[in-house]
Amino acid sequence: AADALVGGATFTDVASTRWSAGFVGYCAQAGVVNGVGNSKFDPAGQLTALQFGKMLLVELGYDAKAAGMVGTDWAINTSKLMAKAKLMDKIDGSVNQVLTREKAAQMTLNALKAPTVEYTTKGSSISVNGAEINLGASEPTYVTNTIAKQQTISDATLTNNGGYTIELGEKLYTKLKLSSGAMDDFGRPIHIWTNDTKKIGEYAEDEDAKYTDSVKLGTIYADLGLSNSGIPAGNVTYYVDGEKTTFTKDIVKGSLDEVGGNGALTQVWYDSAKNTATITVINTYFAQIAAAYKASTTKDAYVLLASTGNTGLGSTYETDDAYAVDDYVLYTYSKMTGATGVKSMKLAEKVTGTLTGYVEGKSVVAGGTTYKINAVAASKATIDGSLTNAMNTTVDVYLGFYGDAVYVDAAAASDAYAAVIGSNSASGSGSLLGATKAELLFLDGTRKVVDVKSWGSAQLNDIVSYRINSDKEYILTQVASVNTTETAGVLVTKGNTTMGNDKYNVGQNGPSYANGKTTFLIYNEATNTVESYVGIANVPTINLTDADDNCAVYVPNGSASAKVVFVAHDGDAVISGNSKSVFFIKGDKNGTPAVNHTEEFGDYYEYDAIIGGEITKIKMAATNANKITATIASQLTKDSKGVYSLVAGYYANSTTPIGATDASVKYVAAEPTKQNDAVVNGTITLAGTPISVADKCEVFVISADGKTISATNVNAIQKDDNDKVWYKTNSDGEVTTIVIQTVDAAGSAGSSSEETYEWEVNANTLRVNLTYSSNTTSVSDVDVMNNAGYALQQAGYVVNEWGGSYTQSLTATLTSSGLTAHAYKGNLDITFTIFMAKATA
Q: When comparing pLDDT for 94 and 127, which is higher?
């Protein structure tokens, strides 16, 4: 082999000790290289296409001397043969260019597909005045055989003898094969390279025409060089994102019918012999990375695409590229049967600039540059009337593969809302007649006096959208009008998604809802102060006291939940969110405590208790009222000696299940029809009633024998139908303290009335799978939601809202329940479908 050769003196500048000396000597002896003249090789020099082409031609069988690739005319003769062998196919530039590795690889591939040659005789050489002249060499002819199965790269035949040409790849690599006639996942004709049974890769055939914008069929006609009647529609095979579609128009001269679209890759392949064409369209889609997963022992690395803002159908994509959560990406997607999914992906380029103009669904002007919008419908939808609110503000435009705008970030527009809390009108309360200035309360809680160009039907205390013109004037549009005739009552309860039905005016009927993204704006007219909250978990309970408390609620079209809630009150609305003190006294099991007596305290009962979240002892006055079993209280009195007494109406126990005056304290002896259940999405079920759990809810457990009290947490509470429960809620309706006494279940050991289930949360299929025990006969919709909610909680998700319609289906096969859960996890925003089954016996 060449690496075993010892470098000789062929070239004076190649030392025998040089690593490449043996290879250079071997190639020189074979006539592959001839040096650069003057007995030099220039081993560290750059390689031109002409020089490399000569090497490849020699490998194809051309004799350097016989073919004239030496001497003064070597360059001309070599370039002619390179053109004949098509060695420069797909390479731009002349044969004198210095080769990159990529171009050298392309030339090598071209050589593998080129036919080899041979000579009958290579003649002889004579030297005349120092010039070497070759005499008597025959013309090179193609090497052929007649065995069809050996034609692994080309099945070309010669017209003179019908023999198959032998390509270089067929000669050197007998197991190397080039196949054609197949198509890729987008319907494009491809060729496939394989080596024995191993697939090297598949590559699209060179198209005859390519476009990245919509193109008229008349243009395709001209670009293909067609004549006469063109191509009938029935002769066109048409794919859009890999989905075969009927082509209905003939490709004829002057046709104005179009295919493709801006930002879509449209490719055309034409078979002149059959007068047929294949046309494929590949759209560009846009999404944000919701999660990036490293490779495991069972699955390659992959990313999950967020559903919100996704302009296509993508879900997951296996890739070793380093994508991070929140990256914005472009991707292609195939709808071909059996090959559906994301096929390619790359980071999207972002440009930032001031929005100065747009044409709905067509183009946007940002930073002084006009960007045509991508043809995908969801991309076009980002250029709509909502952008009026973002005019003259900074926007982000994400560009597609071909410089089109694939997505316009309308965050600025979506948050351009405010409440009108004042004006310079002299026409009285509520009217803005003649006003030129307004004071706006923005979603972030800031306020500002602005110049108003147009009021857009807005009145005082209305919610408006706004945009700012080039003169810094605000153009307002009313989106929710204020209800000036409110009735007293609770508008919103902290943690409760349903708001009071008659406490707002949104121009629609039925209840209104809030969620974790609703913004609440509160304006105290008496003190001229404002408050801003985001989400039902953060807003305090708001209790309107009279008709002077005004409210407006904005619910966007197509949404079930409010985006903005505005309250203007005259100082008497109750805005509350604090919990009161809570006491738990374990009491006496039978309500007949022993009397203790000391000189310091006199007669008293001593009970185990929980005070201020601490497990302790409590002394209570020895009166009949204080002869109690386990009791929860919101108020106690304490004398000068530190001895406590109950306050009538402010406690609950087995005798008085709900405080007569303060109903926030309750006792329940759960039963099978009103079970206690675990915390799901911040809600716990006590005696069959779901209750929001406060952030710092305290939980304590009393042993079944009543002897010990221990602290625990809400996550330790499990479904049960016979435990005793005492609990306290705050003014927001959230449970702040829970005390549970376990009760031993009746019946044989191991028996249980509850149904067990297993769960799986699959973010790839967007499903929650619930598999119940084999003896389960039915499951209610409430239990399904509780069980699925618990599963999602354990997987790190927070359910925002439920949807769908429950249809019970409990068989051995997982079947959709009809319920959906819209859930969040960090930046993930996913809607899961709940599937149910029961285990086989």
A: 94
